[in-house]
Each structure stands twice: as structure tokens, then as C-alpha cells.
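User: Fold this; C-alpha cells only.

Assistant: Input:
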Amino acid sequence: MSMYRLRCAAVCLVVAWTLGGAGRAAWCDNPGTQLLIAPATGPADLLSAVPATLPTDNSAGPTDLSAGPASTTRPSPAASAILDSLGNHYAALHSLRVAGSITGRFDVDGRTSNPSVRITGSFLAPNRFEHESESDIQLGATGQKLYMYAPAGNQYVLDDGPAGRMTPDDSASLVVQVLNEQNPSLAMAASEHPTSILTQDATAVDRGDDAIVNGQSCPTLRIAQSDSDMTVTIDPKTQLVQSVAIDMTRGFLRQGARTVKSAVLTIAYTTIEPDASITADAFAWTPPPGSRESHPANDATALVGKAPPAFRLKAIDGTTVSSTALRGKVAVLNFFATWCGPCVGEMPELDKMYRQFASQGLCWYEIDEGESQQTVRSFMAAKGLTMPVLLDDSSTAGGAYGVLGIPQTVIVGADGRIRKVIVGADPESILREIQAAMAAGR
């Protein structure tokens, strides 16, 4: 598979059932019960638990330890005490070894699934770690480099590694983002601001009721986000994270599910070994034989100010469209797939923008990554979307535009230069950029 799928699907456990209509959540085409990093093997008829589980963007400057670098929500006094203790214990670690699992408990619109995958990880201060999810991906920091390897595609990405524990500047790395999502305890050990891994984008942070785990009473935190509710359980022996449970009910309902009886993704640690005996040579990594390097995560933004790369693609109506159609126009290229929940979630708003500005000369193409004409045509019809769609069957256009995570939106000015590249679902920013480009082109 192409590495562009990785960011959208990295934390999405496959839920093996079909839904009656396309587009109610993220659609995927791999029927395994592993994390969704695997070759396509069947039709796009499986639902993925797509709402974001753990925050990854620590772009603002540091504040206090309990709030984290980019949190704007002040925790309750009881929660602050737990966060302070948690942050201090992670900051004091010389090393850490963890093992556990990511499991799902889903009952949505009468269909159930309980997928599970094992995870392991280790950390050595200040800047070495490794994480592996069973039959899925391997990632880590060698002390000099950050790497991530997808065995299914025999592909890897490399970034420069941090000089010490990870800071907000490192959050742009795909490796760091996936680590935060799949192995939060390991990410906290490797971070300069440990608790920001949990509290980023929180709308409320409170102390929860104590939980009983293996006969022991464990303190908990309740962290609310826009599409999910997170419960963090603290191991009383190590004072580190024992589990993170994410209730995704609100996210599924927002994406169109009618009845959600259960939609919980849980990262639980059965092994927690602080200050374990680990040597630096355990973190050495070299690309496996025959593997190939994918685009670095920041390739797309490097296109800003340049002419858009050429392409020639078939549209879902059978015609052929080339990049010459963009000349002299403000243009929007939105790379997406029907199995990608964030893509699906923003498309109704994007369609409104297309209809609003098309009469003013805006050129807009949705570019589907790797799916069949029938799949995409059926999806667009079912959702009532009117935007023109091109098919990037072999991901050649996606590669030329540095697409590693979807959705990705490219805004081209009337001067023939790329003005902005937006990775992730962000309709508000897209609208602002279109308005600015249209104004500049008058």
C-alpha cells in the first residue's frame, strides 16, 4: 500500500462488519483485525473506528506541566494534582519498558466487533525509543533518526531525531504523531511535556472515580474532547498510565451512525517496567533489505510558492483531465478516499464551497487515491456531492503532491503558484484560503 494512507488510518482498528450505506464513517478495504496498515485485499466495505483518539499537535509554546504546551483548558484542582504527579514521574524516568494491547468494543447500528492487536515499546533517556504493533508497523528513535516501517508495503519514512526528549517542534513528524496515538505511555516517557499527550485539545479535564484493576484501587482522569471521552487509569505502583479508554460514541453519531451501544477503543498495559535495564544498542535500526523510503512528512508544504506538479487523470465520468485545466484560475485540489473518516466528514462543507465559488471561476477537483471508479461514483451519489472527481489509481499524482496523510488540500492561485497546502480536515482554513486567493486574483 502507499504510505499516504498511514496518517489517516494509523490508529484505526478495523471493525469487521459492513454498513448499509457508504460514508457513515471511515471506509477501508482490509478485513484483518490489525491496525489498518496492510495491503488492500477486498472491497471497501468495512468500518474503521476513525475519530482521533489521542492528540498529536503540540504546536503552541509550553505552559504549566498539567496543561501541556497547547492546552487551553484548565484542569480541575483534583485533576491537576494527578497530572502534576503523572508528569513528574514520567520526567524522572531513565528508561521504560511496556507491553499491552489496543482493543475495540464496537456495537454500532446492530453490528458488533471486538478487534485486538498487541503492542510493545521501550524508552531510554533522553532520546531513544521503539514501538511495535503486532503485524503492523514499527517505529522508533535511534538517538539520531526517527523512523517508521510498514512491513506490509516494505516501506519506511525517516526524520531527524530529537536531541533530547521530544518537544513541540517534533510534533510535525509522522513518527511522533503515530507514537502518540498508538502508545501514549511510551510517548509520554519520550516527551518534554508528558501530560500534554493526554490533555491536548481537551474541553474538560476532571478526576474520575477510582477504578479497581487486579484488586487495586487506581485513580482515573476523565478527559473530554469534541468527538470522544477519554478515561485514563493510573497504575498505583508505578504512578504511570495503566490504560487509556476512548469512548468514540459522539464521533460515530456525528458521522451518521443511528444507534451506538458501544464504541470504545482501549490501550491497556499489562507490562509497565520503569527504569528497566535497557542498553542503547537495542535501539539501532536499519532499513530491511529491499525496502524503499517514502516521502518525508513535510514534502507537501515544500510545494508552496511553486507551480503545481503536472498530472493527467481520468474523471469518474470517463473524461480525461490534465493540470492544464488549472491555468489562470484559482484552483482547489482535495486528495481523499472514501474510507477516510476525516475526508468524509469535511466533504459536505467542501461541496458547499465548490457550489458557492464555481460560478466565480473557481476550479475544483477532488482526487481519489487508489479506489475504483464504481466505488467513488457510488459514494458521491449516495452523499449527494457535486464536486468533479478524478481517479489517482496508481497514486502518481498523490506522490507528486507529497501526499502522505489525507485529506490534503492544495490551493493554487490565479498566478499559477501553490498558495497553501493543508493536511487534515480543516474546512474553515480552506474557506479562508479560497477567499484570499479569489480576492488576489481579481
